[in-house]
Design goal:
This protein is of the alpha+beta class. Helix content is 23%, strand content 23%. It is elongated, with a radius of gyration of 18 Å. The termini are far apart.
């Protein structure tokens, strides 16, 4: 027999809210979430979401049955978290449109990529992943918009000026997770 008791104490659920102004800290976290958390930290709110249709903290849960991950995100995808169901660990935390937090150097959603590359000289395009990352890799990923990826790659390879774009999505991935899946030369670690 299977069972799950309805959660009556919602004090924790009210406290467990995304913070759209929190700083973006590679190898730590963003939005009030961090890589020290695990699936157990989300258990109460996830369970509560099955009983209540409206959750005041704005988190939605979805199982990815193909990769066996739990995806937790805000309604408008300002923050998105992936939790590996086999380990229970957060593998990535990302932010997008509507997120106001910034990296320590002032780069954030809506920043110009050309300006970001001037501000942070460790940032560069990685042709193996099509990401803009820091070297050595610290978990920070800035995505090149899909419609610009080929042009961006061509310009980087040819040494011509790269097209500018506004940063739409920033992702932080757990370093141990990155080493496991990208440690074969795709990313350079310390």
């Amino acid at each position: 027999m299977k069972g799950r008791k309805r959660i009556e104490n919602t004090e924790f659920i009210e406290f467990f809210k995304p913070d759209l102004f929190a700083g973006i800290k590679p190898n730590f976290g963003l939005g009030g979430f961090n890589f020290n958390q695990n699936i157990k930290d989300f258990e109460q709110i996830w369970t509560f979401s099955y009983f209540e249709k409206e959750i005041k903290n704005n988190l939605n849960f979805k199982l990815d049955e193909k990769y066996f991950f739990l995806n937790v995100r805000t309604e408008n995808r300002e923050i998105e978290i992936d939790i590996d169901l086999f380990t229970g660990k957060l593998s990535s935390i990302s932010c997008g449109k509507g997120y106001r937090g910034k990296l320590d150097n002032g780069i954030g959603i809506g920043s110009s990529i050309k300006e970001a590359l001037k501000i942070d000289n460790r940032l560069g395009f990685n042709p193996d992943t099509d990401w803009i990352v820091r070297t050595p890799f610290d978990g920070l990923i800035i995505y090149v918009p899909h419609k610009l990826q080929m042009k961006y790659m061509d310009n980087v390879v040819s040494g011509t000026e790269i097209p500018d774009f506004r940063i739409e999505r920033i992702e932080l991935i757990d370093i141990e997770y990155a080493k496991k899946f990208y440690g074969d030369g795709e990313l350079i670690f310390e």
